[in-house]
Amino acid sequence: MSEPKLKAKLFIHAAIRRCSLQALPAVVAHKGDEDSGTILVRVYMGGRQCRVYGQVRDAEGRLGWLCATGPQPVDEERAEAYVARARAIDGDLWVLDVDSADGSAPFLEPLFRA
Fold first, then answer.
1. What pTM does this model have?
2. Tens digits of per-residue pLDDT, 14-41?
3. Own/partner long-range contacts of 70-73 (Cβ < 8 Å, ≥24 apart)
4. Given CB 3.0 to 4.6 Å as the disulfide criterion, which of 43, 61, 74, 88 pairs with 78?
5. Mean of pLDDT values over 60-79
6. Ramachandran class of 45: left when φ > 0, alpha when ψ lies in -120 to 50, beta otherwise
């Protein structure tokens, strides 16, 4: 049985708050369904490098995050292309942008590896 999931809007507000506590700028780039929208997080790392994370569940049903763009940072254009494709598939998608020089965000836990 999988753990319960927060409503998307509540999760986004909490994520922005956690970022602000660590002086990390975070903004909603695209607003999705307030209750059950899927969430993508685009982390800008400076130097035009990004990572895009998506929520996934592991084999035991635990909710976590996976870097959707692979283990290495990608350029902003490739990250934007990934987000655009995801939005074309899922109109309820939320996109949260975070600026973090080291590529981390305080709410991206647990982080799964592909």
1. 0.91
2. 999 999 999 999 999 999 999 988 999 9
3. 70/114, 71/113, 71/114, 73/45, 73/49, 73/103
4. 74
5. 94
6. alpha
